[in-house]
Structure formats: C-alpha cells, structure tokens
Amino acid sequence: MTEVLLTVGTRKGLFIGRRRGDAWEFGAPRFHAQAVYSIAIDTRGPAPRLLVGGDSTHWGPSVFHSDDLGETWVEPTRPAVRFPEFTGASLERVWQLHPAGPEAPGVVYAGTEPAALFRSEDRGESFELVRALWEHPTRSQWVPGGGGEGLHTVLTDRRDARAVTVAVSTAGVFRTVDGGESWEPANKGVSAVYLPDPDPEFGQCVHKVTRDASDPDRLYLQNHWGVFRSDDGGDHWTDIGAGLPSDFGFAAVAHPRRGATAYVFPINADIDRVPAEHRCRVFRTRDAGASWQPLSRGLPEGDHYGTVLRDALCTDGADPAGIYFGNRNGEVFASADDGDSWTQLAAHLPDVLCVRAAVLTP
C-alpha cells in the first residue's frame, strides 16, 4: 500500500497528513501560533527527517527537525541558522530548506532573509554561512522587494555536488560550480520590466526556479512578470509564457519523473494578486513550455480568490505524480494523476505558506 506524507506550513502552525491507499488523515497542528515558511522532507537516511523553518513572534525564527514523522521535534540548543557577528546581520526568516541529493549525503541548504545561503553537513542540525555569496560584489545593490529580500530557491545537481543554483528576491539567479567558492549571475534573457534597464545582469525579481526531471540543464523560472526556460543551466533564458492567461505568478514545479513537464499557477497581476481570471486552475506544460493546458477538474468553479505562494505547489516524487497546492484561503488540494483531476483535502486552515510531500512506501 502506497503511503504519502503531506506537510502544510501555515501562518499559524504545521499540519501533517498521511495517505494510506486512497484515504487521507490529518493530525493536530504543530508549532501553534508559529508561521511555518519552509519545510523539507529528507528521505536519504534510514528514516525520513522532517525539517521546519518556524517563526515565533515571541522567540523569533528557528529550524526544528523530527525523525518520527512529526510526532516529536528537536530544536538545537544553539540556533541552527545564525549570522556570524562580522556580518552585522540577524536572521529574520528561513525561506527555504533543501536536502541535497545522494551526491552530497548529509548536506542540507537553508535560504534566508536577509538573503543568504547556509550549508549543513549533519542533515540540518547546524549550518554555516556560505560566505562567498554573502560577499558577492553585487550584493550592495540588492534591493528588497514587496516580500523582502529572501533567498527562496536552492537547486542542487545530481551530477556534481559542487554545482548549486539559487534564486533571490529582487536579485535574480546565481550559480556556483566550485562548491560555493565563487558565484555568477545567471539571468540573461529574464526581463525586469519594472527597472530602467529591462535586461540587467542581476536585479530580476525571480519568484521560483525548478529543474526538469530528465534534463538537468533545463530549468523553468517564474518571474515577477514572465515565465522562462533555460536549456543550458541558466546561461540563457527564453520566454515561454505564451498560452497562459497571465505570466505573473509565484509557484513553479517540475514533474518529478517526466521530462519537459512543469506546472505553474498564474496570478492576475502584481497589483491584483488573485488567481488569473478569478479561476482556480493549475497550468501544465508537457512540451517544455511550447504550450500550456489548464487543469481544473475537481477544483472550485466560479470566482475564486485563493492565491498560491511560491512554495505552496509541490509534487511527491511518484509516477503518476501527486501534485499538491495550498492557498491563502486555507484550502489544500491534491491530484494523484499528474494534475488531471483534483480533490480538496482541507479547508479553513490558516493562510497556507508552503507545502511539501513525499512517498514513504513504494
């Protein structure tokens, strides 16, 4: 019997669901009154490890981990993610937690606000600042956007543990091929219509980047206006937004096993942040962005206003893939057939900030 774990981070706690066969069960919320902005499910060890970036209005941000599927949690006595004194910075939020692949056992990355990358070698119990990115020559020109200045995307490369791609709000995409010793902008072709120079080297407001399942050099990017594809690991980007009702949005995710297949959730506009045309639809491409198909069977009909944030759309690694999303209405939806049909799993939750899923049994 296939068992799937679904974790939902909200403005007021973490909700964990498990599917055994076709039935879903959700437990009581964890981290009461904490905003959960980031979740990772690390399946590389003998038992899955859950990592959560929580944000308490009283105690501040922290990273917790659980090795029993969320029954109990550990918070290190020394903050797992902290800025060294020489930076003069303090942690405001952990936007991303990303376990590397088998090419880097035990390695987990954290993306933060202020925008920085941290690296752990003990599965997320302690992290060290990746100093070269923090000290990048362009950094003094990074400007916070409406959602702050956060490093929100981390992509590792199964072919090479030294290759890492990150994305930063209002700074763009940056890459390293030497394990973080040096970093280069990778934004050529990504437009920035809100800047005097619409094609800058950096400064793009990238919302999310995801990697193709079969071609690791193919990336998909959802920008603040614009959906793009790169076929060379980020050296060049091509606009693939034609066919979408709007090319503004936050979320993007690639199918976990099928190449040329990715999903986005279009939003009307930056000044009207509700679903495009007020309809609840995920859009899928099966030809690397040459065309897009709306997926709405089983989703709410009529006017709908539930915005999906950048980390609130995910897959579970199966094939057919489970696709999941949550919205700011507190609704969570799931598809067990690559997005062809949908079921509502939850309603009336707090504002959904992020979702993560994983298959626990084959």
Q: Provide the β-strand percentage band.
A: 35-45%
How many distinct beta strands?
28
Give the helix/strand class. mainly beta
**CA-CA gap between termini:** 8 Å
What's the shape?
Answer: globular
Q: Report Rg.
A: 19 Å
Secondary-structure element pattern, one letter each? EEEEEEEEEEHEEEEEEEEEEEEEEEEEE
Total of helices: 1
Share of helix, binned: under 10%
Uncertain ranges? none
The biggest beta sheet is recorded as:
5 strands, antiparallel
Mean model confidence by pLDDT: 95
Q: What are the key terms here?
A:
362 residues, 5-stranded antiparallel β-sheet, 4-stranded antiparallel β-sheet, 1 helix, 43% strand
Note the topology.
Elements: E1 3-10, E2 13-20, E3 23-26, E4 35-42, E5 49-56, E6 60-66, E7 93-99, E8 108-113, E9 116-120, E10 128-129, H1 131-134, E11 151-157, E12 160-168, E13 172-176, E14 184-185, E15 206-211, E16 219-223, E17 227-230, E18 238-239, E19 248-254, E20 262-269, E21 272-275, E22 282-285, E23 293-295, E24 313-315, E25 323-326, E26 332-335, E27 343-346, E28 352-361
Antiparallel strand pairs: 1-2, 1-28, 2-3, 4-5, 5-6, 7-8, 8-9, 9-10, 11-12, 12-13, 13-14, 15-16, 16-17, 17-18, 19-20, 20-21, 20-22, 22-23, 24-25, 25-26, 26-27
How would you describe what is shown here?
The chain is mainly β and 362 residues long. It has a domain at 34-143. It contains one helix and 28 strands. It has one helix spanning 131-134, and strands spanning 3-10, 13-20, 23-26, 35-42, 49-56, 60-66, 93-99, 108-113, 116-120, 128-129, 151-157, 160-168, 172-176, 184-185, 206-211, 219-223, 227-230, 238-239, 248-254, 262-269, 272-275, 282-285, 293-295, 313-315, 323-326, 332-335, 343-346, 352-361. Strands 19, 20, 21, 22 and 23 form a five-stranded antiparallel beta sheet that branches. Strands 3-2-1-28 form a four-stranded antiparallel beta sheet, with no helix packed on it. A four-stranded antiparallel beta sheet has the order 7-8-9-10. Strand 15 (206-211) and strand 16 form a beta hairpin. It starts with a strand and ends with a strand.
